[in-house]
Design a protein that fits this description.
The complex is a heterodimer of chains A (about 350) and B (about 425). With about 350 residues, chain A is an alpha+beta fold. Helix content of chain A is about 25%, strand content about 35%. Chain B has about 425 residues and is an all-alpha fold. Chain B has 19 helices and two strands. In chain B, strands 1-2 form a two-stranded antiparallel ribbon. The chains are: A alpha+beta (about 350), B mainly alpha (about 425). At the A-B interface, β6 and α2 of A face α15 and α16 of B.
C-alpha cells in the first residue's frame, strides 16, 4: 500500500479572529500518512490555531483543509474521526479510566465485548493495566497523560492531534513520555500532529517539524536538516544554540561567499539565503562546529578572548569575544584532555565555511 | 516506637508545653467567634427552642383549673360528673372570674370544642351570685354546656401537660372524644391543601428557576469577561434591590390595568373587558417568586460552570460525541453539584416564602408561611403557629436529609 503523501493538507489557509490580524497567513502544509509531524513555534505563532482548525473547533477564514483527499471544513468535529490529546488532558473527571476510554466507543455504538478488547489494548499500550476503576483525580500527572493518550487512540482514529500534551509534566517524566509517545506512534503507525514550543521535544519525537512564526511555516523538514541546515535566521535561532554575526556580502562564488562583518573582518560563509553582492546577511554558526586550536586546515581562523566559563557537567561552555561578538558561545566536551581554560585567555578558533550559513538579515 | 515522654528543653513534657503554646491561640479564636456565637444563641437557637416548646406546651389550662382536673381523674366519662367535680370547678373558676383572668381559658377550651367560649362567658357573669351549695344544679341552670357530657369529656381531654394536638391540627387531623385520631370535619380541612400548595409552588418555582437559570449561567460562564460582567450585573441588580420593592413592582406590572395586561389585550389574546387575573392568585406567586429567587439558582450554577474547562466539551466532541451527547454525558453531570445547591437553596427559600405570596398571592396563592403569620398576628394561636413552623422546619430538614442521601451534601457548591 502506498502512503498518501497528502493525507492532511492545508491549502492556503488564513485565519483571523478579530478581522484585523491574521493569526495564520496563507498556510500550506502537507502531512504524509503515518507521519509524526510537529508544529513548533513560540507562543502566538499560530500553531495551536492550526491544530484547532484541523480538529474542527475553529474554521479557516480562507482556504481549505483536506483529510485523506476530502475537504473537511464543513464536517463538525465529532464526525472527523480525529483523536485529540489536550494540554490539560481534558479527562472527564466524573468518569473512571475505563469509562473515559469507553466514551468514544460507546458513542460509536461498538458492542461491549469488542470495546473491552480495544480498551484493554489501549491501556496496555500505555502500560496502565489495572487502573480501569480509578478516577482521573486519583492518578498522577503522568498517568493522566497516558490515559489521555490511550483515549485518543482507542477508537483507531486516522489522525491524532496532540496540543502540548507534556507541558504540565516535570522534566524527567516529560522525557520518558516523549519516548513512550514516539514508540506508540512507531508501533501503530497512526498519523500524529503534535504541537509544542519545546524544541528538544520536537527534535526527539518527530519525523518532520514545521517551524511556525508569525502565522507562517518558516521551515518544514526533518529534525536533523532543521538543525543542520536552517533556511532562515529565525529557524537558526529558534532551534538549538546559535552564534550569529551580522554583515554584508562582498562576493559570491559557487558554494562560498565572502562576508564583511561589522567590525571590518572578512569571513567565508555558505550562501544559503543571499543572492547578490551587497546583500545584508546574518551568518549563523553552531557552537559545536567551531573548533578550538584546529589541527586541520579551516576556512576561517580567528582569535577570541574567553569572557566567561560556565560549567555544565558533561561539557563546559565558553563565552568568547570573537570578531566583535561578545556573546559567541563555544562548547568544550568534558574530556581528560582539558585545555587551559581561564578567563582572559586567548584561543585559536576555526570553522569551515560550509557550517557557517549566511542567512537573511532579520 | 519509644513510649518515653519527649521533654522540651526546659524539662516540661513536650505535649504540655505544646498545649500551653496553643492555648493562647485557641482563646483568641474563641474570642473571635464568641460574639457571633452569642448572637446566634440569642436570636436563633433560643427562639427556635422556645417555638418547639410552645408547640407542645399545654400546661396553662391545668395550672388554671387544678382542682377540676384532680376531681375529673376518677370520672368515667359516661354520665355527667358528680357534685364534687362541679364544686372543684367552682373553686377554680371563681377566683379567675373575680380577677378577670379567664380569657385565655375561653380561647383554649373553645379550640377543644366550640361552644365553650359562650358557655364560660355566661358562667363568668353569673358565678359571682352562686350560692355555696348545689353547684351542679346552679351550673346546669347557667348554661347548657354544663348539661352536656361531651363538654366535660373535652375538658378532661385537655388534662395532659404536653400535647401534640396542634400538630394533628396542622395536618387536618384531630382527636375525637375517645382520643382517637380522626380526620377534621370536611369543611375545616384547610391545612392539607395549604401544605400541598406550598410544596407545589416551591417545586414549580424551583423548576422554573432552574430552566431559566441554566442557560443564563452557561452564558455567564462562557462569555468573554467584558460581556459576562455586564450580564452578571443584570442578574445581580435585582438581588441588591429590596424584596419589598421588587414585589411591589410586580404588583404594578401584573395588576389588571397594568402593562402586562395591556400588552395581552393589545396583542389580542384577551378582550379588554375580560382581562386575565395575573395577580392575587397562584400565577402571581409563581411569576414574582421565580424572578426573585432566580439569582439563588444562577450563582451556584455559575460558580460550578466556571470551573468546567471548555476543553472537556471539546474532548467529548473530538472523541465522536455529538454536541448533545457531549452535553448530556459530560457537561451536565459536572454541573450537578451546582444544580443540587441551587435547587436546594431555591426550594428551601420558596417553601418558607412569606412577603411575596402575602402581597401578590391573594387567597388562592397564599402559602403556609402566611398562615403561620396569621396565627401569630391575628388569631394569636401561637402554639399552633409554632407547630406549623416546626413542621415546616422538619420538612426542610427532611429534604436536606434526602438530598444528602441521594447526592451527598459535600457535593454541594455554593460559590
Amino acid at each position: 500500500m502506498t502512503k498518501n503523501k497528502e493525507f492532511v493538507k492545508f491549502d492556503n489557509v488564513d485565519k483571523s479572529y478579530d478581522g484585523k490580524v491574521l493569526v495564520v497567513k496563507g498556510l500550506n502544509l502537507d502531512i504524509e500518512e503515518g507521519e509524526f509531524v510537529t508544529m513548533l513555534g513560540p507562543s502566538g505563532s499560530g500553531k495551536t490555531t492550526c491544530l484547532m482548525m484541523l480538529a474542527g473547533f475553529e474554521t479557516p477564514t480562507h482556504g481549505e483543509i483536506y483529510l485523506d483527499g476530502k475537504v473537511i471544513s464543513n464536517i463538525p468535529p465529532h464526525k472527523r474521526g480525529i483523536g485529540m490529546v489536550f494540554q490539560n488532558y481534558a479527562l472527564f473527571p466524573h468518569m473512571t479510566v475505563y469509562e473515559n476510554l469507553a466514551f468514544p466507543l460507546r458513542v460509536r455504538k461498538i458492542p461491549k465485548d469488542e470495546a473491552d478488547k480495544k480498551i484493554d489494548k489501549a491501556l496496555s499500550m500505555v502500560s496502565l493495566h489495572g487502573f480501569e476503576a480509578r478516577m482521573p483525580m486519583q492518578l498522577s500527572g503522568g498517568q493522566q497523560q497516558r490515559v489521555a493518550v490511550a483515549r485518543s487512540l482507542v477508537f483507531d482514529p486516522q489522525v491524532v492531534l496532540m496540543d502540548e500534551p507534556l507541558g504540565a509534566l516535570d522534566k524527567n517524566l516529560r522525557e520518558s513520555m516523549q519516548y513512550e509517545i514516539k514508540h506508540i506512534h512507531e508501533s501503530i503507525g497512526v498519523t500524529v500532529v503534535y504541537v509544542t514550543h519545546d524544541q528538544t521535544e520536537a527534535l526527539t519525537m518527530s519525523n518532520r517539524i514545521a517551524v511556525f512564526n508569525d502565522g507562517k511555516v518558516q521551515q518544514l523538514s526533518s529534525p536533523d536538516e532543521l538543525y543542520e541546515k536552517p533556511v532562515n535566521s529565525f529557524v537558526a535561532e529558534f532551534i538549538g544554540e546559535n552564534n550569529k554575526f551580522s554583515g554584508q556580502v562582498l562576493d559570491i562564488s559557487g558554494d562560498k561567499c565572502k562576508v564583511k562583518l561589522e567590525n571590518g573582518t572578512e569571513i567565508l560563509a555558505n550562501p544559503v539565503a543571499v543572492k547578490a553582492k551587497g546583500d545584508k546577511t546574518k551568518v549563523s554558526l553552531r557552537p559545536e562546529r567551531a573548533i578550538i586550536d584546529p589541527t586541520d586546515k579551516m576556512d576561517n581562523n580567528h582569535k577570541g578572548k574567553i569572557e566567561e566559563i560556565i560549567y555544565h557537567g558533561d561539557h563546559t561552555r565558553l563565552r568568547v569575544d570573537l570578531l566583535g561578538n561578545k556573546e559567541f558561545i563555544l562548547k568544550v566536551p568534558n574530556s581528560t584532555a582539558r585545555l587551559d581554560l581561564k578567563k582572559g585567555n586567548v584561543l585559536n578558533i576555526g570553522w569551515n565555511s560550509i557550517d557557517c550559513r549566511a542567512l537573511n538579515p532579520k | 516506637m519509644s513510649t518515653e515522654k519527649i521533654l522540651s528543653s526546659d524539662g516540661i513534657p513536650l505535649e504540655i508545653s505544646l498545649k500551653k503554646a496553643e492555648r493562647k491561640n485557641k482563646l483568641k479564636a474563641l474570642m473571635l467567634v464568641g460574639p457571633l456565637f452569642l448572637f446566634l444563641i440569642i436570636t436563633y437557637i433560643f427562639p427556635i427552642g422556645d417555638m418547639l416548646f410552645r408547640s407542645v406546651d399545654d400546661r396553662m389550662i391545668t395550672q388554671k383549673l387544678p382542682n377540676t382536673f384532680a376531681a375529673l381523674e376518677k370520672w368515667d366519662g359516661k354520665e355527667l360528673p358528680d357534685e364534687a367535680t362541679y364544686e372543684a370547678f367552682y373553686k377554680d373558676f371563681y377566683p379567675l372570674a373575680i380577677s378577670k383572668e379567664a380569657g385565655k381559658l375561653y380561647q383554649r377550651l373553645n379550640y377543644e370544642k366550640s361552644g365553650f367560649s359562650s358557655g364560660l362567658k355566661k358562667t363568668n357573669r353569673t358565678i359571682k351570685k352562686f350560692e355555696k351549695a348545689n353547684y351542679k344544679e346552679q351550673f346546669m341552670a347557667t348554661h347548657k354546656i354544663w348539661k352536656d357530657v361531651d363538654y366535660w369529656i373535652a375538658l378532661k381531654n385537655t388534662a395532659p401537660n404536653w400535647s401534640y394536638a396542634k400538630y394533628l391540627k396542622g395536618l387536618d387531623l384531630k382527636f375525637d372524644q375517645d382520643r382517637n385520631i380522626i380526620q377534621q370535619d370536611e369543611d375545616r380541612r384547610v391545612h392539607k391543601i395549604l401544605w400541598l400548595r406550598t410544596i407545589k409552588v416551591a417545586f414549580w418555582v424551583t423548576v422554573f428557576c432552574f430552566l431559566l437559570a441554566y442557560p443564563i449561567s452557561h452564558l455567564l460562564a462562557t462569555l468573554p469577561m467584558k460581556y459576562s460582567n455586564l450580564l452578571m450585573i443584570c442578574v445581580l441588580l435585582p438581588f441588591w434591590t429590596s424584596l419589598l420593592v421588587r414585589t411591589s413592582s410586580w404588583m404594578v406590572l401584573l395588576q389588571q390595568q397594568g402593562p402586562i395586561n395591556d400588552l395581552i389585550v393589545w396583542l389580542g389574546w384577551a378582550a379588554d373587558d375580560n382581562r386575565p387575573e395575573l395577580m392575587y392568585n397562584v400565577v402571581g406567586t409563581f411569576v414574582a417568586m421565580t424572578q426573585i429567587l432566580l439569582p439563588f439558582m444562577v450563582l451556584p450554577l455559575y460558580s460550578v460552570m466556571k470551573t468546567i474547562s471548555p476543553s472537556l466539551m471539546r474532548a467529548g466532541k473530538s472523541l465522536g460525541g455529538t454536541p448533545f451527547t457531549a452535553f448530556r454525558q459530560i457537561y451536565f453531570p459536572l454541573t450537578i453539584p451546582g444544580i443540587g445547591a441551587g435547587c436546594l437553596l431555591v426550594f428551601i427559600l420558596a417553601i418558607g416564602y412569606y412577603i411575596t405570596p402575602a402581597l401578590v398571592g391573594g387567597a388562592s396563592g397564599s402559602l403556609i408561611s402566611n398562615t403561620i403569620a396569621y396565627h401569630m398576628k391575628s388569631s394569636l394561636d401561637w402554639s399552633f403557629a409554632a407547630a406549623l413552623g416546626t413542621m415546616l422546619l422538619v420538612g426542610v430538614l427532611t429534604i436536606y436529609w434526602i438530598y444528602n442521601k441521594l447526592v451527598g451534601i459535600d457535593n454541594i457548591k455554593l460559590g
